[in-house]
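Morning F.,

Quick status update on the modeling queue. The single chain you submitted on Monday has been processed. Sequence for confirmation:
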Amino acid sequence: MEGRMMSLSGLILVYHADSGGWQALWDSTHKLLSPATYACSLCALTHGLCGEVGAWKSFRRRHPGVVTVMHRDEFRSGFPECAIRTPCVMQVADGSELMEVLGTQSIAACIDVDGLIVQLERLLSVRA
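Structure tokens below.
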């Protein structure tokens, strides 16, 4: 992870979920059975029951290498010194300096994935 950490630039989206196949299955089941209590508003926006939603896939394809997606456990492993509340969007400055640019409340306030994409596009245009 350390090599990847040094090459990051742009935005890091951190899900409030851990990585792995069983975790993904659990998350999908939770979203299906009790969507109102699902804790990751970022995942609820970007993923349906069977994977990424189309608008989100298109957004990620338009920004390869600029938008990185990480699960909570991956972020903590790569950035152990950085205490954050998830989900969130972090911006990478100077190759390693991290700054939160969208917090949990801002993400939860997005009505749909298009609203999230508008905010992320704005952040990317400011960065350019």
